[in-house]
Design a protein that fits this description.
Helices cover about 40% and strands about 15% of the residues. The protein is α/β, with parallel strands linked by helices. The protein has 19 helices and 19 strands. Helix 2 packs across helix 3, helix 5 packs parallel to helix 6 and helix 8 packs parallel to helix 19 (about 500-510).
Length: about 525
């Protein structure tokens, strides 16, 4: 996993480095500009020097743009540079680079319609967005409307018939914290971030216009010489499992745990079977489905390696949990809300590693504190946004505010619940009560759109339960589970249905070298 930062964390790191005397702001700006130019050459090796439109804003992001213009010109590019704002009001470092640029080329004052027309006429070359960076918290100004519209039109052309668009740090108008489109945002083929990627590069707020994950394109990170120490309360970007998922040659089935999946009645067992199959495929030594007696025959007709036991009610579950070898539980998939209200308290009484999903969450929508009062630190909640809204309505409502990040919502939910919360989506956030958080982004090159199919969430719940049965801590099981889930979807590809996901896990493990 790699660290990603909020805008405030990044600002603090820069300010501390400058205050210590280790580096100057002007040096950081020069390194940032050089890093963007280097990434352009790396990302677009077929792009020959031609025409570049450099769009500079009124802050230090614009100062980076001046550096980029100067360095590109030295490589043979013909530069047209536009500045939004008054040059006299630029910050000192940006003003210095503005003046340096003036020695080699003109600065065109911003004319939104003229810029829009120019961009619309470009069939090749480069557009560099250095208008606003990570500090923007408001909609784009009205005099960027034509520019935004022209960029949007370019987006729908084939790459061979348009210029490449590069954002300095993050596309203008995208919140670096929440990923929200603040209004009139630009987009990019490539976003070049400095020191660390930002939260907003990977988050995509639901119910709002296309934001960070959709608008940032490829995200590249360049080192500008800042200290590499981890930032306090930083978020980890899940790139692959951070724990070893292999098994020892000397192990036996009980050494890899026994997962118990609690199911609903007859005719409603598909979700539980998906979860159980996933738990078994991810390496749990044994998996048992506990079902009402009338459903046992149905399950027995469809299962082989997965065991069955009749379970009428929560009182019986307490008795079943006297067997200490049952070390991980999965409740929710196909459970039914009435049965969930009975079984969830008994499951939590047993204080086993537990995944609560689907009906096990929705069953407590009328009075979430009833559930929260029973949760413990071995639990993982796996809500999608609808289930999250039922349990945490105030936090879900705040997510409609463009500047409120999904990361902070998950952290607040985990603190309230006292356990790990995995908030599902293409940008899945995992948080624990201490504030530790990770983001798994199934976007861009890592996109797994085939997961938008019935039952895929049940498989994720089973994967996490299986990992916890194997002894993984809740947070590690949740982060690794999210990665494995998406990797299995990518490995299968088009046509995926939920039943395919567990069967792709062996291939994913082989790809990991296990």
């Amino acid at each position: 996993m790699s660290e990603i930062l909020s805008s405030a964390q990044m600002r603090g790191i820069e300010q501390q480095a400058i205050a210590s005397g280790a580096v100057t702001g002007l040096e950081l700006m020069e390194r940032a500009g050089a890093g963007v130019v280097a990434q352009i050459a790396t990302a677009f090796p077929d792009l020959s020097p031609s025409t570049a439109a450099i769009l500079c804003g009124p802050g230090n992001n614009g100062g980076d743009g001046f550096v980029i213009a100067r360095l590109l010109q030295q490589r043979g590019w013909a530069i047209a540079l536009y500045l939004l704002g008054d040059p006299a009001r630029l910050p000192p470092d940006a003003r210095t680079n503005h003046d340096r640029w003036l020695k080699t080329g003109p600065v065109h004052l911003w004319d939104d319609r003229q810029i829009g027309d120019r961009l619309g006429a470009m069939t090749s070359g480069l557009v560099v967005d250095g208008v606003f960076g990570t500090g923007l918290t408001r909609p784009m100004p009205p005099d960027t409307t034509h520019t935004s519209q022209a960029l949007d039109a370019l987006r729908h052309r084939t790459p061979s018939g348009r210029p490449r668009v590069v954002a300095v740090d993050i596309p203008s108008g995208i919140s670096a914290d929440s990923g929200a489109n603040l209004g009139g945002a630009f987009w990019a083929d490539l976003s070049v971030s400095f020191h660390r990627a930002k939260w907003g590069h990977y988050l995509e707020p639901a119910g709002l216009p296309e934001g960070g994950a959709a608008c940032c394109g490829q995200v590249a990170v360049v080192d500008i010489g800042l200290p590499q120490d981890p930032a306090p309360d930083s978020v980890q970007l899940v790139a692959r499992p951070a724990v070893f998922l292999g098994k020892s040659a000397q192990g036996h089935k009980y050494g890899h745990g026994h997962a118990l999946v609690l199911s609903g009645g007859a005719g409603k067992g598909g979700a539980a079977r998906l979860a159980a199959r996933a738990a078994l495929r991810v390496g749990a030594g044994l998996v048992t489905i506990a079902a009402p007696q009338p459903a046992i025959a149905e399950y027995a007709a469809q299962l082989n390696a997965i065991m069955l036991t009749a379970l009428p009610d929560g009182y019986s579950l307490r008795g079943l949990l006297q067997d200490a070898r049952l070390n991980a539980l999965c409740l929710g998939p196909g459970l039914g809300q009435s049965r969930a209200q009975d079984l969830v308290p008994a499951a939590l009484w047993g204080r086993r590693a537990t995944v609560l999903d689907a009906d096990a969450l929705s069953a407590f929508a009328e009075d979430p504190p009833v559930l929260f009062g029973q949760l413990h630190d071995k639990v993982v909640l796996t809500p999608h946004m609808g289930e999250f809204r039922r349990l945490f309505p105030d936090l879900a409502e705040r997510l409609h505010t463009p500047g409120y990040p999904k990361i902070e919502a998950a952290r607040a939910a985990a603190a309230r619940a006292g356990c790990v919360v995995l908030l599902k989506g293409p940008d899945t956030v995992i948080a624990d009560p201490s504030g530790r958080a990770a983001l798994h982004a199934a976007t861009g090159a890592n996109a797994a759109p085939w997961l938008a199919t019935a039952g895929s969430g049940d498989v994720l719940a089973g994967i996490i339960a299986g990992l916890m049965a194997r002894g993984f801590a809740p947070f590690e099981a949740a982060t690794s589970g999210a990665w494995l889930h998406a990797a299995a979807a990518r490995a299968f590809g088009p046509g995926l249905i939920a039943e395919d996901l567990p069967e792709m896990l062996p291939q994913v493990f082989r790809d990991l070298g296990l």
